[in-house]
C-alpha cells in the first residue's frame, strides 16, 4: 500500500514537473514566434486590409511605381505622441513593407523643430504636425535633396455639401510625390521677365515650381538672345506693355520647333493697349478676346475673399473634360479665377486638321458679360483653352491661354486653400511636356459599409471553415492531448 502511494506521489511529481516544463516551453515558443513575426512584418506586409473600400491597400499603379525604384526614398512623418494619423500611418507602413528602398522616419517637430528648418526656409507655409515629407535624402537638412511636402488637405478630400473630409486620398498624394522626386527630366521652365519689372508674380510662380522640383528661371529675350530649346516651357504672365518684334520673333521660332507656352492675359489691358505682338500668338489660331469682364450671379459659383473685395470678382469656373483637368475633376477639386477675368472667343470651326483647340475652364451659364455700350451676353464663357498644333510626325507645338493673370500668383486666391490652382498649373505643365507622370488614384471613402457575402461560393466557404475545419482541428487537438496525458 505504501509502495503504491509512493508510486502515485512519484507520478504526480513527474506530471507536475512535466507540466511546468511544457508551460515554460510554450511561453518561450509564443514569445519566439511573436518576435519572429514582428521582425518579418517589419520587412514584409503580413497584414490584411479588411476595410470594404481597401483604404490601406496599395493599388497596382503604386506597386509598379515602387517596383521601379532604383534609389532610396524617405517618407518623413511629423506625428507627435498625441497626434498620429492612423490612416496615413498604416498606409505609409504598406509602402515601406513593399520595398527595401522605401524608408519611414518620424520626426516629432514639437521636440525637434530644427529637423524641418530647411523645408520651412523654402516655403511660405510652415511645416505643421501631421504633414508628410517625401525626400530622396536621409538628411532632412540636406540642401541638395529633392522633396515634396504633403499637407492634410492633400491627404483628405473635403465634401462641401456635408462639410466634412469624407475621402482619403493619401495613396495618390504619396505615389505622385515619390514619382516627382525620383524622375529628374531636366525640364526647364522660363518666365518672361522684361515686361514685368519688379513683379512679384513671376517670383511666386518660380518659388511654387521649385517646391515641386522644377527648374524655373527668368527669361530675357529682348536683345534677340535665344536660350530656348525644344522641350522648354515659357510662361508669360503679368505683362506690362506689348512684346517687341524681336521677342515675338524669338517666341515664334520657339513655337515653330514645337515649343510650349502659357500666356496669362489681362484682357482689359491687352485690349486697351492693343498688344499686337503678344496677341499674335492667340490670333494666329483664330482665338480672340471678348469685350467686357465676366460677372457671376449664382452664389454657388462665387468665392468670398478675406479682403472684402467685390465677391463677384472671384469666380469658380467649371472644369471641362480634358487631360489637364480630368484628375482634378475626379478628385472633386475646384479652382478660382482672379479678379476681372475676361472671356476667350474660340473658333466655331477649325479648317486646319493639324490644329486642335479645346476649352479647359468655362464659367457657368449664370455668368454674364456687360460690354461698354451696356449690352449683356450670358455665359458660359471660356476662360482657359489649350491649343495643339502638329508640326510634323514627331513634334507638336502647344499653347495654353487663360484670361486671369493672377490665377497662379494672386495672394487672395492662394489664401483660400480649398482651391487647387497650384495643382492646375502643374497639370498644365505636365500636359505641355507630354508627361504621363501624374498618377490618378481615386480617393477612398472613409465611411465603411459592413463586409458583405456577395456569392454562394463565399457563403459555402465560410460555412465549411466554421462547421468543419475548425471543429476538426479542435477535436484533433483534444485527442492528442488526451492520448499524451494517458501515457504519463
Q: Please state roughly what percent of the residues sit in beta strands, choosing from under 5%, 5-15%, 15-25%, 25-35%, 35-45% or over 45%.
A: 15-25%
Compute the number of structural domains.
Answer: 4
Number of helical elements = 14
The CATH homologous superfamily of the largest domain is termed Class I glutamine amidotransferase (GATase) domain
Percentage of residues assigned to helices: 25-40%
- The general outline is elongated
Spans of at least 5 consecutive residues whose pLDDT stays below 50 are: 307-312
In CATH, the architecture of the largest domain is: 3-Layer(aba) Sandwich
Q: Whole-Å distance between the termini?
A: 21 Å
Number of strands: 20
CATH class of the largest domain: Alpha Beta
SS class: alpha/beta
CATH topology of the largest domain: Rossmann fold
The main sheet comes to: 8 strands, mixed
Which strand order does the major sheet show? 8-7-9-10-19-18-15-13
Our Rg estimate from Cα atoms comes to 31 Å
